[in-house]
Amino acid sequence: MIKRTLKQISEMVNGLNDSKVFEPIEIHGVTIDSRAVTKGCLFVPLKGEQVDGHQYVRSAIAQGASASFWQQDIPNPPTDLPIILVENTEKALQQLARAYRDQLNIKVIGITGSNGKTTTKDMTAALLATTYKVHKTNGNFNNHLGLPLTILSMDEETEAAVLEMGMSSRGEIEFLSKLAKPDVAIITNIGESHLLDLGSREEIANAKLEIVEGLPQGGTLIYHGDEPLLESRIQKQFPHLRVLSFGRTERNDLFPLTITQEADSTSFTLGGENQGDYQIPVLGQHNVLNALAAILAAKELNIDNESIHKGLEAIRLTNMRMEMVEGINGQKIINDAYNASPTSIKAAIELIEGLSGFRNKILVLGDMLELGASEKDFHLRIGELIAVDQIDKVFTYGPLADYIAKGARKTFAAENVQSFQDKQQLIEALQTSTDAHDLILVKASRGMKLEEVVKALQK
User: Fold this and answer.
1) Which of 96, 98, 125, 249 is the most exposed place for a label (fewest CB within 10 A)?
2) How far from chain centre, in Å, is Cα 449?
3) Beta-bridge partners for 242
4) Which is nearest to 34 in space by CA: 48, 6, 51, 53?
5) All domains in the chain, ordered by first residue
6) What digits encode the pLDDT tens for the residues 331-349?
7) Where are the beta strands (DSSP E) in 14-66?
8) Contact (CB, 8 A) for 188 and 115
9) Under a CB-based contact definition with an 8 Å cutoff, are residues 237 and 226 in contact?
10) What's the pTM value of the predicted model, to 2 decimals?
11) pLDDT in tens, 231-269
């Protein structure tokens, strides 16, 4: 984590007040949450619509914080406490992270995309950790507040950082990229998430491509080469960058020759200079593509093939991403409840359809959010594409997911498709109708909290 004197912090953020008496005080880390204060940290109070963090400054310092920012337009800054007066506390937090990043001798890999950001982050960090001291985004700390906090939590000895960049509207990825200044940028794919805000997949592609704004001349852009919306833009617009692609087709710089799905892992074969057999302890062909992006990033940082193999074997994904758990009745449950879009749900269904050895394969699907005006059609089409000869039962939860059920009923027997608006009723139906011979996939957008279903079923 950042370790600086109050004098140095003030210089990094262009502090407005004279705090000479407090200048020798040392800061160890930063928090914006008064409940998460640690000894010696800097507290950054943020002014929100409902709560103003400035009211917690005195208590934060009493709990062990060494100092605090104070926003210029908030009256009565305490003169008896170690305070750095700034024009805006949020912008000062971001400026502090920007200045700290510039002081570190590190390589940065920035990752964005509609789906697979966190998985690709975890995979890339695992590969780099074979050779470097690595820091990665924790959880979903990937926005205008989370990214600065991630950077400020890095140790001085960090050699490589893997930073996830999320967004909901145009301009956000550009801001994050210019703050993080990645040496390598990855765009995992272009999906349908954020259609509600951006209106079209073309605009989503434009938003994701903002990640190049922070790349230096000659920096590396790694992208999903099977996506036409990326291919057409990248080949024309970025001659100053080193560009590499991954995908399923041979026109990409890295592509799998074969993919084999196993009970608890996925194997694939690569040709060319990366020739050989690889295995990841993760389910899903779509995760092979995430692994290819990670491999390309690792090669850019001179990771050798032997280390790449070791790194892939050591991958541990963030929770609720293709996480296999056991149910109380012995069911095998794939918990993929962190998020969902049409693209990621199709990939998850493809995975379940390809697995064998189970009496029943069951889909538990919830609402996909932020899809805009066509949200009902997206859900209906998901239901229509479920293969009745590969999937045995479909359970849905939520008003939009009811359209998945309607689509599935076009080919499934009525008794094999059930739609719920009450989560407890869904749980009870699954508890009484599934056993040790069954495989259950649970997937929905984050707001549906379907991990509660997994927890209720889990051993």
Assistant:
1) 249
2) 17
3) 220
4) 53
5) 3-88 (3.40.1390.10), 104-313 (3.40.1190.10), 323-457 (3.90.190.20)
6) 999 999 988 999 899 989 9
7) 26-28, 30-31, 42-43
8) yes
9) no
10) 0.86
11) 888 878 888 999 999 999 999 999 999 999 887 889 999
